[in-house]
Amino acid sequence: MYYFNLHILGSLFAENVYNIKKPKVGLLNIGEEKGKGNLLTQSTYRLLGRQ
């Protein structure tokens, strides 16, 4: 949930400070495979996919 919370915070910051209407906030990970990364990264990827 930590990265997901940062996603929300970053999105709100971009909207309110930089006046970006629909900011794109993503998860940076090395590799293209969905199953790569530690458990936190994998869980965040799934949460962002639901948005």
Strand content: under 5%
Quaternary form = single chain
Number of strands: 0
Residue share in helix:
40-55%
How many whole angstroms does the radius of gyration measure? 12 Å
Terminal residue distance: 14 Å
H-E order: HH
Structure description:
By secondary structure, the chain is an all-alpha fold. Helices cover about 55% and strands about 0% of the residues. The protein has one domain (about 1-50). It has helices spanning about 1-15, 40-50.
Key terms:
51 residues; mainly alpha; 2 helices; elongated
Topology:
Elements: H1 2-17, H2 39-49
In brief, what are we looking at here?
By secondary structure, the protein is mostly helical. The chain contains 2 helices and no strands.
